[in-house]
Amino acid sequence: MAQSLHLISRSPSPCLPSPKPSFTTSRKPSLSLRPPLRRRISAILVSHNGKTPSAALETAAGIDVDAATEAEMKENGFRSTRRTKLVCTIGPATCGEEQLEALAVGGMNVARLNMCHGTHEWHRSVIRSVRRLNEEKGFAVAVMMDTEGSEIHMGDLGGAAPSARAEDGEVWTFSVRAFKSPLPERTITVNYDGFAEDVKVGDELLVDGGMVRFEVIEKIGPDVKCLCTDPGLILPRANLTFWRDGSLVRERNAMLPTISSKDWLDIDFGIAEGVEFIAISFVKSAEIIPSLSSLLAALAHLFTEVVFKGFSDIAVVAKIESIDSLKNLEEIIRASDGAMVARGDLGAQIPLEQVPATQQKIVQLCRQLNKPVIVASQLLESMIEYPTPTRAEVADVSEAVRQRADALMLSGESAMGQFPDKALTVLRSVSLRIEKWWREEKRHETMVLPDIASSFSDSISEEICNSAAKMANNLEVDALFVFTKTGHMASLLSRCRPDCPIFAFTNTTSMRRRLNLQWGLIPFRLTFSDDMETNLNRTFSLLKARGMIKSGDLIIAVSDMLQSIQVMNVP
Ligand SMILES: Nc1ncnc2c1ncn2[C@@H]1O[C@H](COP(=O)(O)OP(=O)(O)OP(=O)(O)O)[C@@H](O)[C@H]1O
Ligand SMILES: CC(=O)C(=O)O
Ligand SMILES: [K+]
Ligand SMILES: [Mg+2]
Questions:
Q1: Which atom of ligand 1 approaches the CA of 208 most closely?
Q2: Taking Cα atoms as reference points, which of 319, 173, 154, 300 lies closest to residue 240?
Q3: Nearest ligand, CA of residue 153?
Q4: What is d(CA 274, CA 320) in angstroms, rounded to the nearest whole number?
Q5: Which ligand is nearest to the CA of 238?
Q6: Are 398 and 427 in contact (CB under 8 A)?
Q7: Which among 80, 312, 316, 481 is least surrounded, fewest beta carbons within 10 Å?
């Protein structure tokens, strides 16, 4: 019944850069078709809950599948599982354990914490609640920490007021002075000392990319008097940009460090709390990323030695939101583990009409370079206040899904909106609908995926995944199975955006959660046996017992360990 194709690699050429953490052994190239063995030795599917392997083994009696995914699979049918991943920003509206659980049940794959807001204690309590829910309720929600960055922004508004309203014609003072709370009336503090020197009378000052607009009318020492020209709501710590003669003034921003001293403290905190992703705000160029990544890798190594086995590196996500990043886009994406189209600030730094094309370009480039990409900000902005989205918002969400971004993100909608669960439901149902429509109508664009491998072994993996995805579409298989230690082959399959879902079995807790950001991947944790047949059979019986697959389903299995492709019916 089963057919397998094994591509056995030779050792990588010494002059090529060493591959990513690799599974290659030195063997002669050969191509063989062999019938499957049906032995059953125990491969153990274990929980993703972050326990040590020995603790995890105790919970290995069954298969720990993400409870929310399992429910979605049963509700929508196997082939219709949602492919687009969902990220929710956690804030006052969703920081309680009950609210977090509701989001996890509703399909949140990644919880984002914005370090612009809240204290470490607050963030720690959210992270621990997410971990506890994962452990107790069987979710696999990853945590993403998002740095503040050092672009110019306002301080807190002081006092109890969560926001303030600026009216047309009012004069407000923007100041770098430190005030005692509450602030004097119509006063806003600014986070960088050179502010009063840098602005000129006549400059236009935009709060949050234009939600409120001022004109600079007078400078008095550290205070800058501004006339409100476009009234609106001012939220604490909102970003500020200033424009002169129609251009963004950026001299000072270019000198600000991408990772400020506060960000480093936050990153230390994120590492200590074991977050899966660190998103770096206002990345300008690629240089900063490798130094951060190597620090994270070194720390991961240390953790592996002293804390527990199976801790993998923290992934670095570059937020594309600064005008400078667009000049260095490809290098930045290459250097990172993923990217975010942070349309909020991006739209304050480039003309708004350029944002859609820029989004499309970033999404495409990320897919070509095999990096997960998140489309973020204002997807359902009106749902902060209303229980239903505007039609235009639904169209925007649809477009991001159609572009086949890996993930969509909620910001204020989930952090401080009135309808976080409803907003998540909209993302989920629109994603499902568009994905289905596109599959049924076979509307997928054929994107040319360039070779990205940097070693012979990686080339083999890439060829295997490209072929497996193509075979899966042509044979209309029910699922792709990938057994992957580094996650690399899972991401290569995801990159092909095949028609069927991808079951990704990996052997560490953190890698499993990390895979949860990638399009179409349904990650499981499995303690691998060296024997593929064992892994397959064990997986089949456990998934069958959970009703997630059934006898006769056609699957294609690939593996990093054997570099093989097998086509088979579930026995
Ligand atoms: N941890 C938090 N505590 C309090 N309010 C929060 C928190 N996280 C988010 N918010 C609220 O939700 C709004 C939207 O969140 P979002 O993460 O998009 O932040 P932002 O401040 O707009 O900036 P950016 O996303 O560019 O860092 C914020 O402006 C803030 O009012
Ligand atoms: C998400 C974010 O940082 C932005 O849109 O600006
Ligand atoms: K941020
Ligand atoms: Mg931003």
A1: 22
A2: 154
A3: 1
A4: 24
A5: 1
A6: no
A7: 80
**Ligand 3 centroid distance, CA of 508 (Å):** 28
Q: Is the peptide bond before 182 cis (omega within 30 degrees of 0)?
A: yes
pLDDT at residue 465 is higher than 60: yes
Residues contacting residue 394 through CB under 8 Å, at least 6 positions apart: 426, 430
What is the CA(66)–ligand 4 centre distance, in A? 30
What pLDDT shows up at residue 17?
34
Three-class secondary structure of residue 202 per DSSP = coil
- Retrieve residue 509's tokens: 């807790």
Q: Is the pLDDT of residue 1 over 60?
A: no
The yes/no answer to whether this complex scores an ipTM above 0.95 is yes
Q: Dump pLDDT digits (tens) for 480-528.
A: 999 998 899 999 999 999 999 999 999 888 889 999 999 999 999 888 7
Tokens found for residue 97: 């354990």
In the structure, what pLDDT confidence band is assigned to residue 46 with cuts at 50, 70 and 90?
A: very low
- Where residue 156 falls among pLDDT bands split at 50, 70, 90? confident
Looking at every residue in the chain, the average pLDDT score rounds to 84
Average the pLDDT over 196-216 and give the result: 92
**pLDDT above 70 for 7:** no
487 CA from centroid of ligand 2 (Å): 27
Nearest to 332 by CA among 344, 349, 320, 315: 320
Residue 432: its H or E element: helix 420-440
Q: Are strands 373-376 and 407-410 parallel, antiparallel or unpaired?
A: parallel
What gap in Å lies between CA 157 and CA 135, rounded to an integer? 38
pLDDT (tens digit per residue) in 301-322: 666 555 444 445 799 999 999 9
Residue whose Cα lies nearest atom 21 of ligand 1: it is: 238
In this predicted structure, what is the pLDDT of residue 4? 55
* Ligand 1 atom, smallest distance to 238 CA: 21
Three-state DSSP class for 5? Answer: strand
Bridge partners (DSSP) listed for residue 262: none
The residue-averaged pLDDT of 33-55 equals 29
476 burial (CB, 10 Å; 0-12 / 13-18 / 19+) is exposed
256 CA distance to ligand 4 middle (Å): 15
Q: Is the C-beta atom of 342 inside 6 A of ligand 2?
A: yes
> What are the CA-CA distances from residue 230 to residues 95, 171, 172, 217, 234 (Å)?
33, 12, 13, 15, 11
Closest ligand by atom to 342 CA: 2
Contact 176, 200 (CB under 8 A): no
Chain mean position to CA 304? 23
**Residue bearing tokens 């005692």:** 180
For residues 195-212, average pLDDT: 91
Q: What is the pLDDT of residues 219-257, one digit of tens each?
A: 999 999 999 999 999 988 888 988 998 888 877 677 778
pLDDT at 34 over 50: no
The residue whose CA is least distant from atom 3 of ligand 2 is 342
Tell how far the Cα of 277 is from the centroid of ligand 1, in angstroms: 18
Which residues have C-beta under 5 Å from ligand 4, the single-atom ion? Answer: 321, 342, 344-345
